[in-house]
Automatic annotation (TrEMBL):
Coiled coil: none annotated. This is CN hydrolase domain-containing protein. The keyword Hydrolase applies. The lineage of its organism: Eukaryota, Viridiplantae, Streptophyta, Embryophyta, Tracheophyta. It holds the Pfam family CN_hydrolase. InterPro entries: C-N_Hydrolase (IPR003010), C-N_Hydrolase_sf (IPR036526), Nit1/2_C-N_Hydrolase (IPR045254). It comes from Prunus persica. One of its GO terms (molecular function) is hydrolase activity, acting on carbon-nitrogen (but not peptide) bonds, in linear amides. Residues 27-244 form the CN hydrolase domain.
């Protein structure tokens, strides 16, 4: 797992004071909404154009949605998955790396299906302005649901769960990463807050049945839990939680 922790050992004394006024440096965050098709190359082209347009509008941090290089379906995950250790066989990672380097920005790469030693993961990759892969987060809390007459879906039938939280120091601050259903678990956000993150980022793709009921609610819950600010974009969803 390529999760990056700060080399400094953080203690309770390092935890931010939730009642202290924030010292905020202004910068623009781009949340890239994408229309996904079954054509992988078309998805990559749309993401590339969206990144370019965001940079032209001054974005310094860019976030893509969950599973944006393929339709969110078990029929596609394995087919579209890439081996991140083999760049020649990973066009999605290559595009993100080149875009980050070309535009000099930090990219939270949403999430992608990743092959690793015969296992499939739902993985978010973070690239720095130099185009290097700074960290990756494998979705820890897989989404299994069965609502009779509405939806039945089990990520655990396809994906292997990640087992590490992910914190990465970037040009715009220290970022904690989660993916979609990870936001439902307050312990992860609390851990990130304790370890001094500036931003908690949750690329997501909640389904219609549960998204309308839960997405706004859990964002507010995580914001109240940790005394942070939040922002969002619906449909292919994101939660950007900015700490005070």
């Amino acid at each position: 797992m390529a999760a990056l922790w700060n080399t400094r050992n953080l203690t309770m004394a390092d935890a931010p004071n939730p009642f202290q006024l924030p010292n905020i440096t202004k910068f623009k965050i781009a949340l890239c909404q994408l229309s996904i098709t079954s054509d992988k190359n078309q998805n990559l082209d749309r993401a590339s154009r969206s990144i370019r347009l965001s940079v032209e509008q001054g974005a310094k941090l860019l976030v893509l949605p969950e599973m944006w290089n393929c339709p969110y379906s078990s029929d596609y995950f394995a087919k579209y998955a890439e081996d991140f250790d083999n760049r020649d066989a990973s066009p999605t990672l290559s595009m993100l790396s080149e875009a980050a380097c070309c535009h000099g920005i930090t990219i939270i790469g949403g999430s992608l299906p990743e092959w690793d030693h015969g296992r499939l993961y739902n993985t978010c990759c973070i690239f720095g302005p130099d185009g290097r892969l700074k960290a990756k987060h494998r979705k820890i809390h897989l989404f299994d649901i069965d609502i009779p007459g509405e939806i039945s879906f089990k990520e655990s039938d396809t994906f292997t769960a990640g087992d590490q939280p992910t914190i990465v120091d970037t040009e715009v601050g220290r970022i904690g990463i989660g993916i979609c259903h990870d936001i439902r678990f307050p312990e992860l956000a609390a851990l990130y807050r304790k370890r001094g993150v500036d931003i908690i980022c949750y690329p997501g793709a909640f389904n219609v049945s549960t998204g309308e009921l839960l997405w706004e609610l859990v964002q507010r819950a995580r914001a109240v839990d940790n005394q942070v600010l939040k922002d969002r974009l619906c449909h292919h969803k994101f939660s950007i939680v900015l700490t005070a």
